[in-house]
Amino acid sequence: MPALRPIFHIIGLLLSVVATVMTLPALLDWADGDEDWRAFAVSSGVTLFVGVALSLACQPNGRVELSVRQTFVLTALAWVFVCAFGALPFVVGKLQLGYSKAFFEAMSGLTTTGGTVITGLDHAPRGLLLWRALLVMLGGAGIVVMAVAVLPFLRIGGMQLFRTESSDRSDKLLPRVSQMAGAIVLVYFGLVLACICLLWATGLSFFDALCHSLATVATGGFGNYDASIGHFRNPLAEVVITVFMLLGGMTLALFIRFARRDFRPLWQDSQLHWYFGIFAGFTAAIAVWQIAINDADPLHALRATAFSVASIMTTTGFSTDDYTLWGSFPIACFFFLTFLGGMTGSTSGGIKIFRLQVFLSVAKVQIDRLMQPHRVILPLFNGKAVAEPIVFSVLAFLTLYGISFGLIAMGLALFGLDLVTALSGSASALANVGPGLGEVIGPAGNFSSIPDGALWILSFGMLLGRLELLTVFVLFTPAFWRD
What we know:
Number of strands: 2
Strand content: under 5%
Shape: globular
Distance between the termini: 6 Å
Radius of gyration: 22 Å
Order of helices and strands: HHHHHHHHHHHHHHHEEHHHHHH
């Protein structure tokens, strides 16, 4: 069994950070004269006490150095512990949610999923709304760091793109993992700042611009109103959010290259071409359907379709229209996009376009080998051969993804959910999208009526999807725990 002492020391430090962040909504509610500040003060105190106690009690001698097995355990436990304590304000505050609903809400925020069990957001205290946005921010920044520094170290398929130990020195943007992670976090918050300024300029209040910018760049989807972005009825704001959702779904390391005036990825990165090609293709197809079948206004159809496609494709989960009313073809398109996700190394969830490209390349190789069995053919990505370990990791991920989708859907059906809700709920949880399909959890609904048992299944599904499945499933293998 891996030594747990350094793991809980780091978790204690993370909880201390979460406790500090909790003081921000407490101060906001106190300034607003809302008594809900007490809930955040109590939650912060409890979280800080546990965090400091864990950190001191488990402090190792000397420098903390984690093995691969310890890093696997830390990656999973960190999300669970932060979520468990991040749920406290929802339990002890005005909402007084049951712990199942509170845990689901916190998990949805930290995994940047965006599904909610809260109704009446229009009249909720500002501190509560800020806390939801901060959860998304913590999750988005955590995903960036995990994608750059943790998952490549654990050899999770797709994330090896960010290995700085690569023998191809030309691919190294920065010489050290810590520098790379720091630069990408700066890019992340730079995008947030730009989004805040633009949304504020379109007429949103500064508070709404702040909360929605944090959720947009993190592709989290938590809004301040029950009607999501549709509440504002602001076409300019919709355009800004569409653009920043697409930016949030891009590989954030690309922005470092752009800042260094290296624009080669614009014509060399096939993943980037596929990303915008898929977005443009689905937007055009659904917009034409809207105009031809639903007799929609062309400009509104294009704007609403682009927003919805970007929201689902990047797994953000914002909504302006109830796209489940557009017809069967758009519903089928959005169900497919739910699985797809954005680019590797972004804050979006889903399968990711990189894995789709590798899978299709492998499928093409197998078909070609049937025609030319003696020819040596290798799967390619960006014109380079894909290493065999990455191919196996991607195929294993896709297999586990399909199995997990089926099992989660069956688990939801056990609690009496209809077929559409069970299937789309499973897909949206694994892909960290948020809204599903149907009247219950569609873009016009939420998860408040879902039974507690189903909420725990969905919470586990969100964790699986956010941590790239393999990181969690390896913990359930007996060999992992043997010396």
